[in-house]
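Team,

Forwarding the record for the chain on the shared tracking sheet. I've put the sequence and predicted structure together so nobody has to dig through attachments.
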Amino acid sequence: MEKIIAANLGTIVDVRTYEEFCGGSVAGSINIPLNEIPSKIEELKSLKAPLILCCASGGRSGQAHLYLSQLGIECYNGGSWLNVNYYKSNNN
């Protein structure tokens, strides 16, 4: 997964709330809060795969990963957005 993030091969989706996302996020990531994921399936399917899901600690992104993978959407639980940010900024 780190290689996917570093090579910009997918889309980083931050599933935290809008307020949390505004407090700091991975450059180039998009914000779709966990509670909005079911209503945004078509939008998520249209994004460049695989999706790298992140949140504050990995809990919400884990829930999103389970849900989306059951729908056949290629995705990974990236855990904390800080970790994803580290992989992205230190490997470019």
